[in-house]
Amino acid sequence: MNTNRQVFREGIRDGIPIALGYFAVSFSLGVAARNAGLSAFQGFLASLLNNASAGEYAGFTVIAADAAYIEIFLMTLIANARYLLMSCALSQKFSQETSLLHRLFVGFDITDEIFGITVARPGKLNPFYTYGAMFVAIPAWSVGTALGVIAGNILPVRVVSALSVALFGMFIAIIIPPSRKNRVVAAFVGISFLASFTASCLPLIKNLSEGTRTIILTVVIAGLAAALFPVEEETEAQNEA
Fold it and tell me: What does the DSSP assignment read for 91-116?
């Protein structure tokens, strides 16, 4: 039986490729943080406490739009809501002896990639494996964001603009693969683009802040997709298999 130290080292080993990817992505995210007016330390702290690309980018977007605190809270909560489901899924793989404290610590840094390598491990989960992945992933994400802010303050405006495009490329890389596999996803991706443009032109809605419009569109479009095209349990089981 592996000891906690051995499992921790395995988590570090499997987390290193994730950390390298996080560093590259968070550098571009740091440029977005800089454009929102955050300092390098503030960007570092944001990534340290919120290790999520979509959630942070959404937060930086509404911050740049001078949104209210409640809008920032709601936007971040909605963008990161999927991690609640991932945490619940992982909790089912822990042994009954695993304490609530361990479950909370693991849930703190459940990202798509860390969830993927953790849930793929056979048998009951040992939280120290996730701790090992977190040990290398969180610093890479946080330092990358801080360096992105610093680079945004030093580099010429044209270079900063070019780096900002890299983050949009990351989001395109996220939505294209599932859109190619599922026509429903592809359709709603297109609907979200069209709805976002339409909302910025409509007489009443365009007067709302960008953060509020994003929150409303996210809830409405995601709700429609879930109501009209629910994912059957058998389909989910096949995907997991």
Answer: HTTB-TTS-HHHHHHHHHT--HHHHH
